[in-house]
Amino acid sequence: MSNTADNITIERKHSHVEICLHGEVGFNGKTTGLERFEFVHNALPELALSDIDLSTTFLGKRIGAPLMISSMTGGYSEAAMLNKRLAETAQRFNIPLGVGSMRQALENSSYRESFAITRKFAPSVQIFANIGAPEISKGLTQSDLTILLELLEADGLIVHLNAAQELFQPEGNTDFRHVLDQLSTLTHTISVPVIVKEVGCGISAAVAKQLIEAGVSAIDVAGAGGISWQKVEEVRYTRQYGPERRFSQSALDELLNWGIPTAQCLLDIRDLKKERSEFSDIEIIASGGICSGIDIAKSLALGAHLAASARCILKALHEDTLEKTVATWLNDLRAIMFLTGAATIHELRKRKLIIKH
Ligand SMILES: Cc1cc2nc3c(=O)[nH]c(=O)nc-3n(C[C@H](O)[C@H](O)[C@H](O)COP(=O)(O)O)c2cc1C
To answer: What is the rounded CA–CA span in Å between residue 218 and residue 283?
Structure first.
């Protein structure tokens, strides 16, 4: 990798964290949709609050709670400290952790430690490697896979689909040909499960069907309602090129707000799984705007196996309240389980949600 390309990658990763923490990068009026639902109260829960068990399984392994720390960072010096603190929290609650895109680890060995540090501080939790669709479309070699997986002793590989982000990114790679074919090859050759995620525009039922047929083990919907990555990249574009516009104002308004709300993705994929019984083993992760225990609970009742969060976790980390935030979310989740009479996560998934009036 040339020095210039290396500097651009470091600037990008650094800016992503800074813009997600301080920028106006939410959707305009578009929400996750989870707020439209409420649980049916159970006046006879027939259980003790202290008996509620938040543990569940993900990809065959028991985890402490149905929450995952979404893929975020790695690949520049400060990222090592962020990943260390995320890993400590994952270990403390025994919840899965994703690292940010590892493209740079493939291109340059200097920053590999900023990813590898997660395994040192989270020795016994599931940790997932991460790579983008543009790298998948070119095809990963066996040696690439060895680097990605061995660096973290990874429990699986997450592939992110981020067409809208790449479209807005000043240095974006918009060649998304052959991703599906290459994914299919990957799932048939790799030794660990493959999870596919979006980054905030959501995964439709039609795309979920293609991904499941290509052999993925889990899908993280990463729907709209949290961060608009188009907005994040638009901030970077404007910093570099000034107010010069690439799109008409009306298209820009539509594109910056592009995406399927998280709850809609969950409902559509739940219907798909009901129609196709052979898809029933595919595990679904709810993400995109998850920011409370109530969001986690509603996601599970809409068909998710677990929920995942990035920006709210990053904000809590920045404010030095990460462990307290996660503990509060899990306590909220416990409260909802009590009031719906669900002693286990398995039971909570069967609880009914109604549309609020
Ligand atoms: C600072 C930051 C960096 C991110 N980098 C990556 C990445 O490298 N790979 C990836 O798959 N997703 C990445 N994401 C996207 C998240 O994993 C997630 O899908 C998305 O932000 C939506 O979730 P949220 O609304 O909880 O933030 C990043 C998110 C944040 C906040």
So the answer is: 5
Alpha helices, DSSP H only, in 64-204? Answer: 77-93, 103-107, 113-121, 133-138, 142-152, 163-168, 179-189
Q: Is the pLDDT of residue 5 over 80?
A: no
Here the CATH number for the domain that contains residue 244 is 3.20.20.70
pLDDT at 27 over 70: yes
Q: What is the pLDDT averaged over residues 59-84?
A: 96
Does residue 13 have its Cβ closer than 6 Å to ligand 1?
no
Cα(60) to centroid(ligand 1), Å = 24
Expressed as residue numbers, the domain containing 239 is 3-355
CA 348 to chain centre: 22
Pocket test for ligand 1, best of 22, 71, 78, 322 (most atoms within 8 A of CB): 71
- pLDDT greater than 70 at residue 2: no
Count structural domains, the chain: 1
Query: Of all protein residues, whose CA lies closest to atom 5 belonging to ligand 1?
Result: 72
Distance 309 CA to ligand 1 centre (A): 8
The model's pTM: 0.97
Summary mean pLDDT of the chain: 96
